[in-house]
Amino acid sequence: MRLHRFEKDISGCSLTGFIHQDGKRVTGEDIMKSIACMHDRSNGLGGGFAAYGIYPDFKDHYALHLLFDTMKSKEETEHYLNQNFLIDVEEKIPTRKIPAIKNPPILWRYFLNPKRESREEAGLSEDDFVVQAVMKINSEIDGAFVMSSGKNMGAFKAVGFPEEVGEFYKLEEYKAWTWIAHGRFPTNTPGWWGGAHPFTLLDWSIVHNGEISSYGINKRYLEMFGYKCTLMTDTEVIAYLFDLFLRRHKLSIPLACKILAAPFWSDIERMEPKEQELMQTLRIVYGSGLANGPFAILLGHRGGLVGLNDRVKLRPLVVARKNETVYMSSEESGIREICPDPDEVWAPKAGEPVIAELKNKHVL
Amino acid sequence: MKSYIPGNFKIDRDADKCIACEVCVRQCSYEVHAYDAEEDAVQADESLCTGCQRCVVFCPTEALGVQPNSNPGSKNQGHWTDNDRKRVLKQAETGGVLLTGMGTDKPYPIYWDNMVLNASQVTNPSIDPLREPMELRTYLGRKPDMLEIESRDTCPSLKTTLAPQLKLEVPILFSAISYGAVSYNVCESMARASKAAGTFWNTGEGGLHKNLHGYGNNTIVQVASGRFGVDKNYLDVAAAVEIKIGQGAKPGIGGHLPGEKVTEPISETRMIPVGTDAISPAPHHDIYSIEDLSQLIYALKEATNYTKPICVKIAAVHNAAAIASGIVRAGADIIAIDGIRGGTGAAPTVIRDNVGIPIELALAAVDQRLRDEGIRNQASIIAAGGFRNSADIVKAIALGADAVYIATSALIAIGCTVCQMCYTGKCPWGITTQQPHLVKRINPDIATERLTNLLRGWALEIKEMLGGMGINAIESLRGNRLHLRGVGLTDTELDILGILPAGR
């Protein structure tokens, strides 16, 4: 039951992730080890994972991971989905019973595509049609929540420590080229699975350590573009901001990062004229998209992995590289646990994104 | 028949301290004080006193005190206050309209005082503005919803051309005060302070004195219903043009600068004959609806070759939100909204005290309406009307303003005691007067410094408040109503303001 009203997600956290840029797919064991190493950064009130490349047999289908509080909410959701989508496969998300994970909701996944006539009637692109469906289910169907909605990817989250969540979802049985994970240390009332990270929309997934002090305006800004911030968490707005800038406004990842963690005016004044004009205009036009306050985030997407800190680096983020693999973590220990001998390790500067791309595009 | 209209003030003169030096006689432009040679003493006619405190401040021996005359002998008549009866009597004697100056003194709720700000604790570090960058820079003007960027090669370049913007180093501008209502020295001081602080002042409807054209880059020129002083050069030198539709102190009515104030330089600046009354009609006679406003907006854009933002200023009235939406759609780049507590040089008391709505409610409604319609990016909002301190300003920005206009607080900074007698043209502080011996009382060097100090002090305080909230750029506060909570407000008021009650 969604008893608590999440006004705003105030939490400390651990996060970790890696990408095999050559497209090599590995099981969830490494990511679980890495996040378990930072056990003390979370408090058992939320953990979650996102993985890219897990559904190669359905890579042209939107994979919807849903959680339902009741059979009624499941029926209601399925009625809506059946009206608007062609569902090729639907099944229970496999889990194992473990003592730490109590009272799981109904967990179900659907591989589907929008019905052409419904989509054309709505006058939306496939992606926008799916976004609309996610917003509708999350905001209008009581007790139903979309955990993820991308292609060939999925999010797995629950109330518990992240390593327990991974065990519950049998992540050792999935193989992915990008894994990200999150352990939550919320200071507000816990208890809702949807409140755990990652937050996702289409194939964007976000794990986040921090608090967005600009949440109030980010939310109102997104509402102008039709986003409904139903989860009332600041992490959700980051996912939507990226969706708006990257997918709808077609900005590049580096520029989107410069909106969320804008350079200071004093730095802009020292830039070359052309870059200066660009950065100045970005800030003038997208000021309401600045994510202000302490954060470290990992952004997973089908083509890569991005790490970003706030503009004064008020939360930790360490990056390492070993051959074709890039690791990003709250603590170096989380990296060395699974990669004891990296080629290089560094702490990215405030506001400077670390962008790791999937080089082997054949796997997409 | 004789009316009993007691003076508003009592003057206490300490006979032991008074040395009859006549400083008070020379300072008081209302001729309250007079030297009586027979008695070798200075006497006062209290009925003329406006309570401006000029004599008190300048008395070298601190012999003077000016107190409100509470008229203790009069019986408490409940509903009928002394003030009510005085007004009736004045009108019974003259048959005229009662005038006043400054913003209303009626105790309407001041919602700023029912809103409190947030600060970081534990989960979010506060930021120390003495050690970390803290950015107040603000750009006013039309913004596109999105940017188009060309990424040829590796170097991205802008495809979208940004509309003209005003760049402010502090989100505070000096509001419209016309040359004529105030003295030249006041205008010069505001112009110089704007340049020093990286912000803008506003000519009001009185034109721009030729000596101040050099400050054009920091000047917003106004086009009001009287069109005084408007020509090509006036538009050319300005940074932006403001169409004045209304004013918070007197929504729905025009203005009247009496002929005696129209001196030679004012005549030249306003482009009217010396000694003639300068009358601003209540409406613009070429604006009878929104489509006419749009024509004027685009006429001014054409005249300035689309190089300057066009602002439209309205008084906060009941339908402010819908009107503002229309103004944005009509092409305005900036909307200024002036609340019921906004000041004036002269207005009928009954209008000032009864027409319009508080700026807090108007601002919240306008910002929300523009967002609901998805057009908030298309115009910046300047809130005006009685900003007393930096906290009021921070709250206004959190409610949704891009910047605020200040006028009364700026005048207080250079001596104004808010005696509300601006319309007499005799301001003993040298502010709202054209009499040369009074005008001299404002030294532009000193007034410029005081105005610059005020902006600096407020900017420092705003930075402290921002840092406390864990925010280091003003755009993250703008419209961020989660940093506000209401205390002692009804559900409806909270709903209009779009804020939660404290404790939730």
In short:
The complex is a heterodimer of chains A (364) and B (504). Chain A has a single domain (12-363), classed as 4-Layer Sandwich (Glutamine Phosphoribosylpyrophosphate, subunit 1, domain 1).
Structure description:
The complex is a heterodimer of chains A (364) and B (504). By secondary structure, chain A is α+β, with helices and mostly antiparallel strands. Chain A has a single domain, classed as Glutamine Phosphoribosylpyrophosphate, subunit 1, domain 1 (4-Layer Sandwich), CATH 3.60.20. Chain A is built from eleven helices and 18 strands. In chain A, the strands form four sheets. A seven-stranded antiparallel beta sheet of chain A has the order 8-3-10-1-16-15-17. Chain A has a five-stranded antiparallel beta sheet with strand order 11-12-13-14-18, with helices on one face. A four-stranded antiparallel beta sheet of chain A has the order 5-6-4-7. The radius of gyration of chain A is 19 Å and the shape is globular. Chain B is an alpha/beta fold. In chain B, 29% of the residues lie in helices and 16% in strands. Chain B has an eight-stranded parallel beta sheet. Chain B has a three-stranded mixed beta sheet with strand order 6-22-23, covered by helices on one side. The termini of chain B are far apart. The model of chain B has no long low-confidence stretch (mean pLDDT 95). The interface between A and B is large, with 45 and 44 residues.
